[in-house]
Amino acid sequence: MGRSPxxxxxxxxxxxxxxxxxxxxKLVQYIEKHGHGSWxxxxxxxxxxxxxxxxxxxxTNYLRPDIKRGKFSPEEEQTILDLHSILGNKWSAIASxxxxxxxxxxxxxxxxxxxxxxxxxxxxxxxxxxxxxxxATLQQLVVFAKLREFAEGRLPWDGHSSAAGLQAxxxxxxxxQYLQQLQMLASIASxxxxxxxxxxxxxxxxxxxxxEIDHLNHAETFPETQIPCSFDQPVSIKNxxxxxxxxxxxxxxxxxxxxxxxxxxxxxxxxxxxGNLGDASTSYSCLGSxxxxxxSDSLFDGQFLTDFA
DNA sequence: AATTACGTCAACCGCTTTTGC
DNA sequence: GGCAAAAGCGGTTGACGTAAT
Length: 309
Description:
This protein is mainly alpha-helical. It is built from 14 helices and two strands; from the N terminus they run H-H-H-H-H-H-H-H-H-H-H-H-E-E-H-H.
């Protein structure tokens, strides 16, 4: 594959940069009369000192008569979120679902608005999952700490006591994580007017979020049953009469999404097993953890332990 | 009023995919 | 099937406008 035509056109002294009204007029006049045909041939025929690529971009992104300009509506915004959670940065595919919007416009809107919004609400804009992959790092941190104690001789390696200690640590951390998520969801509820969403997600139909946070803040222990480690029900912030594009894909896609996406289940959970640590075989099935299967092998690798100590 | 920082978006760049021979 | 040209696509840049200091 050779260089792009526009690259070569630089040498020919073709014009770059913003289009003038005169150039726009020439391009529109030509295309309305003849169609665009070959973009490469068009500039010469239309009397433009531009490369074909530049003409195509100007036409498709700005001059096309069916372009819808102006702010994105909440419905369009929701559609973009839905589709992005499924398709990722496939801007042209997303644009094909939004009549009158160009891929460039959607891409810009995503980068300047939606991405920031997701980040602000604590979601990874690429995965649409909560940003803190808490349990993935938690178990490593706990194990590292225990290993360090063990390596320094401060902790006798006793499967039962170690397991109990680990479980206590993890329970405490899970409580913190739960609080973090409740606070994040409370933030979403207040900013996105998503009545009922939080209770729907947490399954606490009769317990207001703030009350739950307060309760947990004062709780001595953290009942494991309260950890929101299972979100079986779909979550919707749309009216029932609004169909979602997501439903079209939901049968074949299983990608995790942020909770303000329509009809979107919260992230699936991955089992975290402590089976390699003595008798501690407690299995935690929690949010968004995706350690590689061999993590424990590498953890106990000699070089790793040397580096760690 | 001047300067700086930040946000937005049109346009470009270069890579990939599609099309035609 | 192989090749080259054209078209499509997504990431990035930079000019411009506006807000903050």
